[in-house]
Every structure is written in C-alpha cells, then in structure tokens.
Specification:
Number of domains of chain B: 4
CATH superfamily of chain A: Response regulator
CATH architecture of chain A: 3-Layer(aba) Sandwich
Number of strands of chain A: 5
Strand content of chain A: 15-25%
Distance between the termini of chain B: 81 Å
Shape of chain B: elongated
Strand content of chain B: 15-25%
Largest interface: A-B, 17 and 24 residues
CATH class of the largest domain in chain B: Alpha Beta
CATH topology of the largest domain in chain B: Heat Shock Protein 90
Structural class of chain A: alpha/beta
CATH class of chain A: Alpha Beta
Oligomer: heterodimer
Number of helices of chain A: 5
Shape of chain A: globular
Distance between the termini of chain A: 17 Å
CATH superfamily of the largest domain in chain B: Histidine kinase-like ATPase, C-terminal domain
CATH topology of chain A: Rossmann fold
Number of domains of chain A: 1
Radius of gyration of chain B: 44 Å
Largest sheet of chain A: 5 strands, parallel
Chain lengths: 136, 505
C-alpha cells in the first residue's frame, strides 16, 4: 500500500510540482493550501508524512505545526518543513524559536526552497523508514 | 669681568695709540671710548665731513683691512664715487643723529644689510668734526624675517587654497577664522557658532569632534551631514586638530572638512548594487526552480499521457517566464535613468486608483484611509502614470505602516490629498499620517539610502525609488514632520511640460 503524503503550501504551483514528484515516486498525495484545510485533511486522511511550508499568510504554518504536535492522534506523523527564504526578509527568529521550543519535538526534516528533488525524496524516504523501525 | 683682563687691553699704547697720533683730537674720541667701541659686535667708524674714514673699530678692520684714510663709500659699498643716497649729511651737516638701513653690496664685509646710526661728534665750542657711524648687522634677522614671511605666505596659501573647509574655533564653538571656501559655501561665519553655520542648530551637536579635541588634545574625526547656506545638504568627513599655546594648552581647535557627498553617493550606490544583486540572485534562483518544477510537471504529464497535468506544468513555466520579465523591469527601474513615458492623466483618478488599492490593507491594519480632493475636476497633468502610481503607492504604504506601528490611543489615519500649487506652477499629491513621525537623524538620510525603520520587513528602497521617479519628472519629494507625531509627504510635480532630468549617479 503506497504511503500517503499531505503537501501543505499556499502556492498552487508548488502543490502541483510536489504532488507530481511524489506520485512519480510511488507515493499517494493529498494537498492543502492553508492551515485550516491542512488540519482537516490530516484528521480525515491520517497521512504517513506531511510536508509543510511555514511561510503561509499570517505565519499559520507555525501554528499548524504546533496544533499537529499537540493532537495525540496526529503528533506521531513525521513532518518535513519545506519553506522559503529564511534569511533576509522573513523573521528568522520565529523559526529558531519554533525549532528549539522544548515542549514540542522538532520536525523530521528542514529544507529550504527552492528544493532539490533528490534531496527531498531522500528526506521523505528516511523519515518514513524511521517510523517503520520505531514501530517494528 | 674686569676691564684689564681683556687680552687686547694689555699694551694699551699699541692698540689704542693716543688720538693725536692718528689725527683725531683726543677730546673727540679718546682711548677709552675707542677701546669700548672695539668691543662692540658691529662696524664702527669715524667719518670726516669729506666722507673719509678717520678711524675704524676692530670688527670693521677685521673684515675690511686697514681702512683709515679711505672713503666711506669704498669701504661700505665698494663704490668709486660718493653714494648718491648718502645719509651722513644729517649728522655731519645738520648735527643730528640719524638712523637708516643700508645694504652693503660688493663690499668685503660679511654683513649684507645693516642698521646704521650716525652720531655727530664735535669738540666743545667747535663745529662738527666727524660722525660716528655704527652699523649693526641685520642679515640674520633679515633672513629669519624673510623665512617667516615666506612661511606665513605659504600658510596663508594653504589655508585659503586647499580644497577643504577650514575653520578655527574656540571652546564655545565660535568660529574665529574661516577660509575662503568656507565663507563661499557657508556665508560670513566669523563669530558665529559652528553648529549654527553648518547645521542651522540652536545648540551644539551631541557628538562633536571639536569638543573632543579640546578635551584630550588629540586629532579626531567624524562624518557629518551639513547644509550649505544655499540649503543644499552635503556630506563631509571632518578632522579636528588642537592648536596649543607655548605651554601646550589647547586654546583653539582647527576643523578641516572635506566634502564626500560624491563618495558617499557612490558608496550607497555600491551598497544598493550589492543588495540588489543578492535579491536578484535569489529571485532568479526562485524563478529557475519554478521553471524546473514546471518542466518536470510537463514531462511527467507527457509520460503519463495526462494532457491536463502537462498543461498545468506549462502554466508553471509561463508563470516563471512572466516573473523573470517583471524582475528585469524592476531592476531597470532602480538601476538606470529612464525618461518618463508621459501621458496626460487626471490627477484625481490617479490618486483614487492608488487609494482603492490600499483599502483592504488599511482595513486589515485598522488604519483609516481617506482621499480628500477638490470637488471640481482638476486639469490633467502630464506624467508617467505608472511611475507616479508607484511613487504615491510607496508613500501610502509607508503611511499606513507608520500608523500601524504605534499601539496608541488614537486611531491611525492616512489622508491623501491632491493639491494645486499655483504659485509654484505645480501639482502635489500629499500623503499625511498621524503616525510616530520621522526622527531628525533618519530625516537626513531619508532619500539617500536604504533607510528602513521596519526592521527586516523593509528594504528601504521605497523612498529612493520615489525620489528617483520625481526627479525624472523634474519634480521633488517634500516632507514635513510635525513634532514627533505625524508626517506630511508631498510629491510635487511641475505643471509645465518637462523632459525630466538626467540621473546624477
């Protein structure tokens, strides 16, 4: 049974690209373009992995990550952050705070856009294998 | 020292034969007087009314040899005939003491310039019999004086000629002296305070290199933005050096300033360029990755035989190409002078267009945004509508963000007005906010560099671009900041047709 990946990004082209890439590599995909939709999709479909863009309007990516990790039934799902430009125009500080916040476990991967497809697929594979190991 | 101990005084007879022997009456110049005159470090001679030397002291004999009986002009001036400017007459004929300066060209004497005093000598009851000519060597003083004059001239030439503004100031920052360049660009300044002349301030600047040089006696420097008396701002690098008295105490400070406006402009241009290159590189990277993604999706769609997916990918590729085009346009807008693409537009419609664009943003930020303009329709104005739209949008956006940045009691309000300025033959778009205002330090730099008070949220390019657009329209950006609260910006555009001006940079 193919693994299910939930792709969260506010850019439609990114959703198209990542879903095509993942499908071509044997994964099943679901997409969401905002935090609200993503949370609902996660609850409904229980994906095996989530790729998340933090830089969505109003920084809802960060809030979504916290909400996922606080939800007992969703907290175990590995999350790979795929996000834009962290230096420069965006508040880097929030990412740091987010990544190192003790009460919430960190994400399984952290990639900056533009993503290198090989690298992303590698991170996804690794994260999914870790689940297998830990659940076995 | 006793008189007798002087070596040449021993055989008094030999050195100073009785006056009668050399034909001078002892009553005129006795042996004691001659001995005394022999000690003087100056040329002394006794000259007869016929201008012949009757007697000479040692100093003169040492250099000129035996001169008794020779004419005065031959010894002193190496002449064969009497000097036309002979001044001994005052002593010899009028019986008065006279003093003059005499050059001694061609003589055997080491002195080249002397101060001469001629004293008439006479026996009691007789007429004037001789004059005592005492010549003091002035050559060393003359040389030193010439050197002093030269160095004063050099100093003056340096003070006036260097391409720097130089002033000498006292502890109260009063200008004691200023060079020509300084007075040309900053007006009459003697007695006025430095901060008043340079910056139009009422009190001294917070950090002052002059003050520091007074405090520690060292050289200091700083970079300052000042205003010429014409009002034009200029950037300077300022050096201050203490001027000390003979005890080493600083009594004044010399301030030397060099204009570096051009250098700073270049520096800023380079900094902007660097920043622009970084931003551009990043944007290009993003566009490329979009294109790569699009290409991947097209390929995948074709492979799967899914034309809908291929079409989606194609749209992504088209978006990427569009973005690349816009990026190039932005770069061109900032990086080079362009001639505005003039069209005749209604100013009210232009302002309304910008305001409507920001209505949602204003509502989101909780700031009141309104447009106030005259009821009657204003004459159309010839501008590049896209450029002026960009400029006005920058100001409105800044105003909204300024208001939103204060967590105050009052409601933030941004008013946009269109004003006719008939006396200036201009039209103005005015944006007024009741935000926190712009502090004076930022005001100085406002239009010149990437100033941003929005932290990492702003590049600070907005006002630079705005100013550039107005400059290209032959207009200007004016602003007024009402004591700590609120700012009024005006985009002033000339009513007369213009071609815009060349970019300076």
């Amino acid at each position: 049974m193919p693994k299910k990946i939930l792709i969260v990004d506010d850019e439609p082209s990114m959703l198209t690209y990542l879903s095509t890439l993942f499908e071509d590599n044997g994964y099943q995909t679901i997409t969401a373009s905002n935090a609200q939709e993503a949370y609902e999709q996660a609850e409904t479909h229980r994906p095996d992995l989530i790729t998340l863009d933090l830089l969505m309007p109003d920084k809802t990516g960060i809030k979504l990550y916290r909400d996922l990790k606080k939800n007992e039934t969703l907290a175990h799902i590995p999350v790979i952050i795929v996000t834009g430009f962290t230096s420069g125009n965006f508040p880097m500080i929030d990412f740091r705070k987010f990544i190192y916040e003790r009460s919430i476990p960190g994400p399984q991967g952290f990639l900056e856009k533009p993503v290198e497809p090989g690298l992303l697929l590698g991170e996804v594979k690794k994260a999914l294998e870790n689940i297998k190991v830990s659940s076995a | 020292m006793r008189w007798a101990s002087l070596p040449w005084n021993k055989p008094q007879e030999a050195l100073n034969p009785p006056a009668a022997k050399i034909g001078i009456p002892d009553t005129l110049l006795d042996g004691g007087a001659r001995a005394l005159l022999d000690l003087l470090p100056c040329y002394v001679s006794l000259i007869s009314p016929a201008r012949e030397v009757l007697w000479a002291n040692k100093a003169l004999i040492r250099e000129a040899g035996q001169v008794t009986g020779l004419p005065c002009h031959q010894i002193y001036r190496a002449r064969h005939s009497p000097c036309p400017d002979c001044q001994l007459g005052v002593a010899l004929e009028q019986g008065s003491v006279s003093v003059w300066e005499e050059s001694l060209p061609g003589s055997n004497l080491s002195a080249t310039h002397t101060l001469v005093q001629a004293v008439p000598l006479q026996e009691r009851g007789a007429g004037i019999q001789a004059a005592l000519k005492i010549s003091t060597d002035l050559s060393p003083f003359r040389a030193r004086q010439r050197q002093l004059e030269l160095s004063q001239r050099e100093y003056r030439a340096l003070f006036e000629g260097v391409p720097c503004y130089i002033s000498v100031q006292d502890r109260e920052f009063r200008i004691l002296k200023a060079n020509r360049l300084f007075e040309r660009d900053f007006g009459r300044s003697q007695g006025r305070r430095c901060y008043e002349v340079y910056k139009g301030r009422q009190q001294k600047c917070e950090v002052c290199p002059v003050e520091r040089s007074f405090e520690d006696g060292q050289i200091h420097f700083s970079e300052e933005t000042v205003r010429r008396s014409s009002g034009e701002p200029m950037e300077m690098v300022v050096y201050t050096a203490p001027i000390t008295d003979h005890l080493g105490k600083t009594f004044a400070v010399m301030e030397m300033s060099t204009e570096i406006t051009q250098v700073k402009r270049l520096q800023r241009a380079l900094a902007s360029l660097g920043q622009a290159v970084a931003i551009t590189a990043h944007s290009i990277k993003n566009i490329l990755s979009g294109l790569e993604g699009g290409a991947y999706v097209v390929q995948s769609g074709l492979r799967r035989g899914d034309p809908a997916l291929a079409a989606k990918g194609f749209e992504m590729v088209k978006d990427g190409v569009g973005m690349a085009g816009r990026l190039v346009q932005d770069i061109l807008l900032i990086s080079k002078a362009r001639t505005p693409n003039h069209r005749s537009v209604c100013p009210q419609a232009l302002a309304a267009g910008v305001v409507s664009l920001f209505e949602k943003k204003a509502a989101d930020l909780g700031v009141e945004l309104c447009l106030l303009q005259p009821e009657e329709k204003l004459d159309p104005i010839s501008v590049d509508p896209d450029a002026i739209h960009t400029a006005l949008a920058n100001l409105v956006s800044n105003g909204l963000e300024a208001c939103a940045s204060v967590q105050g009691l009052q409601t933030g309000r941004v008013q946009v007005k269109v004003l006719e300025l008939p006396e200036e033959e201009c039209l103005a778009f005015q944006v007024e906010d009741n935000g926190p205002g712009v502090n004076p330090e930022v005001q100085e730099r406002l239009f010149r560099e990437m100033v941003s008070t929005k932290g990492s949220a702003g590049t600070g390019l907005g006002l630079v671009v705005t100013e550039k657009i107005l400059r290209e329209h032959g207009g200007k950006v004016r602003f007024h900041c009402a004591s700590q609260s609120g700012t009024v910006f005006q985009l002033v555009i000339p009513r007369r047709p213009c071609l815009g001006e060349e970019d300076q940079t």
